[in-house]
Predict the structure.
Amino acid sequence: MNCQESSKLIDAFMIGALDSDQRRRLSGHIASCPDCSEKITASNQLIRSFKASADRRAASWRERIQIPVLNLSDSQLQEFPAKQKTRSAHHIQLVAAAVLAVLIGAGLLFRLCRPATPDRPAVEIAWIHEGGGTVSAKRSFPTLVSESRVFSFRHNTAGVYLSAHERKTGELLWEASLENSGPIAADDQHVYVLEPSAEYRLTAIRATDGKPVWQYRHTRLGSRFVLEPTLFIHNDALYWENGKEVVCIKQETGTLLWSRQFEEHSVRALSPGQGDRIFTVLNTGITALNASDGEMIWSCDHIFSEKIQAGPVWIDSEKDAVFLAYDNGEGGGKLICLDGKTGTSRWSRETGKPLNLTVLKDRVFLKTKGLDVFSASTGVALWSVDIQGCGPVSENKGIVYLVGGRAQKSVFAFDLQQGRNIWSFPLCSSCSGLAIVEQWGYFRGHDGLLYALKLNRRG
Amino acid sequence: MDNFYWIEDPSVPVSSNPDHHESDEDLMARFCANQDETALSTLLDRHMGAALALADLRLRHTGLSDDAVQETLIRLVKSASRYNPEKPFAPWFYSILRNVCIDLIRKEARYRMRLREAAEVHETSLNRIDYNPLYDGLRCLKDKDREIIVLRLLQDLSFREIAEYLGCSESAAKKRGQRAIRRLRKLIN
């Protein structure tokens, strides 16, 4: 494709009127043509500005209609005939509409934040970014936040997009079109995306402008397709598991450092450990690997019986301990703590059926029907709350944050020590977990919007 | 990087993903069933920007377009019982708005008077909206062309929904959209 053909397609592309083949050809050209790339960028800026103007106009419309709140009943509304309106009836109708709009638009827009004290709300919505598109509740990846940026996926019928936003203002910095969503990891210079497809593609994207820096492709082994593989950064390298092997990639260059295949034992989970080791869960048990070369340090086999080999497991580690939670196949679960250096058992206990595991601040947070919290040192139960959350638990300055599932679409804040509920904040959408940095929380709702919350220490 | 491309694409359809969030139709059905204000609130959140833009562009006066959108809301609430949840919400909603705008322009003499007054302060009035150069180009397009562009760019309506709104086929809507965006490009260049 040359620039002349590209120009013809760019305008149609801007309103989404291209078919997938045209779009792919245009994309191929754009990737190698700075001029056409600039045209797309300029058009996008124009459209973004147009959208922003429309948003401001809508906001202004709501602000300008400041009238006393009246309660107009249905019967009062019905009194106004649809035709042959009198001036007063028309006026009252306008007032009624304005009241409706103010009530609905202003009051309920933010779903009636319930502050803990009248003068200082526990949570404030700092910004909302409307990207267009939705986020699948069935398969979505949590929003990730680095020191200065927020990274989030959005989906729609045209594809999958990874967007980067300025953390405190929500300004869209860039947006990258991908073929698939996948786990992401980030530092302040780069964001790394692992796309599971016919092959696994790991791409390093520059955090400042969204340009790809390198891409590593890895052949998928076996028939098992891991929808949500694990990806993390550890000791200047990226690690992921794809069901059959653990792969280590050099963070700076994207070159393969090592990969270790487990022919007989499927890899079911992976976690970074302290120092030069990582932990992986296989069908038979848990194994510690040397992070530098993938060599086995120790293995604790025969943890799982045959009956529970197919069930989900969760692994996390803190300090020199590794924690494992799994479904025992009988409606309950088991939580095990092993010494990270030797693999010897420190403690274990029966639990409810586990749904997620997070370890932080010497606490093990296990999601079951509610949230159960144990001492990481001894396994003693400390406190529990009857809230079924989703996504990982977050913590900041002694406050634990939990996002409720679809039934309880709220953010809950608990005191880390005693589990006292400090506040809750209703959300307008369910989501896949809250990302916390300092006293800011970020999540992409299943309504497709990206939300930033300002979290106060006390309400 | 054959399959890895980097194009910002803000103009993508959202409403054809009913599995992923509560659709406009579900929200409207919820409102019809039990007067659920949160459902109506969500609908307003989604459509207010585009509705005001369409009204502004057609009526060319912010005061009139404010009235038009308010009147549209009134009609929406009053005719909620006649809404068929099996049909897409957006074409129905924007049809109400279009009818309200047409009523305001054609049937009410007092509005025509205001419109004449508005013409004199037209630029001032619209400049206050803080629209960008696209706005000037859109004003010069035919109504249907303009509506396609606005509903695609601001509302992410699918071409199927736009086709239903315009009363034409999906492919015709898409072709018309392509022609419209080319005209718009010429106008703003």
